[in-house]
Design a protein that fits this description.
single chain; Nucleoside Triphosphate Pyrophosphohydrolase; alpha+beta; 14% strand; 7 strands; Endonuclease III, domain 1; 2 domains
Amino acid sequence: MQGSGKAAQDLLDWYQKNKRDLPWRNTDSPYKIWVSEIMLQQTRVDTVIPYYHRFLEAFPTVHALAEANQQQVLKLWEGLGYYSRGRNLYQAAKMVVDEFDGKIPDDYKTITKLKGIGPYTAAAVLSIAFEKKHAVVDGNVLRVMARYFGIQNDIRSGKTKRQIQRLADEMISENSPGDFNQAVMELGATVCTPTNPKCEDCPLSVDCVAYQTVQTDTIPYKSPAKKVPHHHIGVGLIVNQKNELLIALRPNDAMLGGLWEFPGGKQEKGEKIEETVSRELSEELGVSVQVFDKFMQLKHAYSHFKITMHAFWCSIVDGSPKPISGKEIQWVTLNQIDRYPFPKANKTLIEKLHELEQSDLTTFTRS
């Protein structure tokens, strides 16, 4: 196998000739690089690009982000998913302004104190923005390194990830650590792909163990993922006499925290979905409701589970709604509802509701 220095230089040469023109590669701003790295976590590049532009148009500096409110941030994040990233980015920006005079920390120990910055993001920002020698290891890097070094162990295991981290730390370029990290990730995204890798275009193929031993279809090995659970969710579209819908704000420490939703929850064993809606609205809002016709049903997949959401028209028959399990509730018209940030599944409901824009919604909650 060739020396790691030669391999790193070959990789850098390839990167300079083949790298994609991406917006975060045209800046040396640590803030803008940080924003891109947070958005790119578990999200495709082509999905991120329009969000990146809109976010920086609204918050061009870390000070602008710190001075915003969380609802503004989450509204711009709406649809990008993994909303804790947006909440953490906002909280970290406030910390940067309050504790570091608006300057992104340039050392590992300090930057990892910021909310939402773990080993991967720290290594990416420090190497790309500050040329610090910290190797990144994400899914693309795991695949490239496993194939190059012929690592046959399960890349889901912590032991294998630590092994690859050590190898990446040894291989990373002294002079251009940021470009090296981006080069490895670029190679994994465009050439050393999970299936049908373009090995003839790879700058590392001459000494790639998986390629030379014809094992690119079996390396890397990833153990089967656990079965993804599926839940049925019942939600209520509660309408009042003013033709307004009731929405609720999720607590920050909950999944999808800081986002608004139509109140409801998970179906329990042996429960009819209409009973789920009635029970959940009683528990969440302290009201008794009459459940009418189903408005729509939709499926949605999260990272670790899937749901089928059942939305029913409802009206309150007893009690005044209050946010027992949430932070806040609001009555909103269909003209106002788009001002609020919602999770993807609720957004799908809202898109369907907009088809009723001129309707008297109370007609759906009459016996």
